[in-house]
Amino acid sequence: MRRILYTIGFSLVLGSSFSCISSSDEDPLAALLTSPPVVSSVTPQIGTPAQNNLNATYAATEVLIKGENFGVDPVIRFNDIIATISLNTGTELYTKVPDGAFSGFITVSKSGGSCLPNSKTGVNCAGMEYFIDCYTVYNKQYGPEIELKQGSSLSVEFDGQETKAFHTDTLLSSRNLTIGCESTVTVRVFDRSCKATDYVLQNDPIIPFPAGVATQFYVTADSKTCSLVL
Question: Where is the signal peptide (predicted)?
Fold first, then answer.
């Protein structure tokens, strides 16, 4: 009787051991296939698409994404715009800010996964916030950006033929920028993807700004004091 009980007990233990081994062999593979990617850092988190303006060309910002579980064929998106991956080491992804990118999220999705529109969540998806700054590549050559808030005005003095950089806050509704100056002015306005529109040698220009974004712009004027009203 003791021998029978011992045999039964040994069989149960042995069967349980085989079951554990089988389970442990399957878990890492299952986790690799079904768990989402992890994005631990994005460097830098501020950049620009390529800029090809009238007087200069600037390359797109190179971006390094670090993390794990990216899979063999991941997809990088800046919001809904797919970016080209130049190198995938398994824990690092190298890319550049694509044309048309705007502030929002940079995401990585595994093959077969998807990210919700303009979001860092979805199926097999991970990401972080990313900010487009058209002035980044200029190395602040026009000094620090001056903020002009909606519904407010500024009085700005220009010394010689000088260019100054400005940005608005995020506008709740579309508004007009009105510039009053004794001399003609040249204004360069960037859209949210850093495409520039130039208003050359204008007298007291009135320039429309869109709602929902913070607009960056430059003003070039002679030795005059100019008023900017938004």
Answer: 1-22
User: Which amino acid does the sequence have at 37?
Assistant: P
Q: Give the rounded distance of the alpha carbon of 193 from its chain centre.
A: 10
pLDDT in tens, 164-219: 999 999 999 999 999 999 989 999 999 999 999 999 999 999 999 999 999 999 99
CB 45 within 8 A of CB 63: no
* Segments making up each domain of the chain, as ranges: 37-133, 138-229
Rounded-to-integer distance, Cα 44 and Cα 58, Å: 17
Neighbour count for residue 162 (Cβ, 10 Å): 16
**Under-50 pLDDT residues of the chain:** 1-24
CATH architecture of structural domain 138-229: Sandwich (2.60)
CATH 2.60.40.10 is right for the domain spanning 37-133:
yes
- Taking the whole predicted model, whether its pTM rises above 0.85 is answered as no
